[in-house]
Write a structure and sequence with these properties.
- There is one protein chain.
- The chain is mostly beta strands.
- Helix content is 5%, strand content 27%.
- It is built from 1 helix and 5 strands; from the N terminus they run H-E-E-E-E-E.
- Strands 3-4-5 form a 3-stranded antiparallel beta sheet.
- Strand 4 and strand 5 form a beta hairpin.
- The longest helix is centred in the N-terminal third of the chain and has 5 residues.
- The radius of gyration is 14 Å and the shape is globular.
- The mean pLDDT is 83.
């Protein structure tokens, strides 16, 4: 429902500079957040199946409420280098962020 570059519209405009800068400190060509959706996504990374954490500052991943199977669930992710919102199915032993909504 957010149209083109929905991920860009979901990224926070402040908090972590990594949305707007490359590793060498130069400005990224795309992917800078506008937060026009109000989601305020931050690049918290995730926890992989062996228990280690990865991708902090580079991507943000959030669980969805939908299961793919008994061992997998769907998640959505934002990457630092582009304005896209991605969807994947991951093993439930991995750890991603959650977004709580008030009824």
């Amino acid at each position: 429902f957010l149209g083109d570059e929905e991920g860009k519209k979901m990224k926070s405009t402040s908090g972590w500079e990594s949305w707007s800068e490359d590793l060498d400190g130069t400005k990224a060509h795309s992917g800078n957040g506008t937060n026009s959706s109000g989601f305020n996504g931050l690049p918290g990374g995730g926890r992989v199946s062996n228990g280690t954490f990865s991708n902090q500052g580079y991507s943000g991943c959030w669980w969805s409420a939908s299961e793919g199977s008994a061992v997998n669930a769907y998640n959505f992710y934002l990457y630092r280098y582009n304005g896209l919102l991605g969807r994947d199915s991951s093993d439930k032993v991995e750890g991603f962020s959650v977004r709580c909504l008030r009824d």
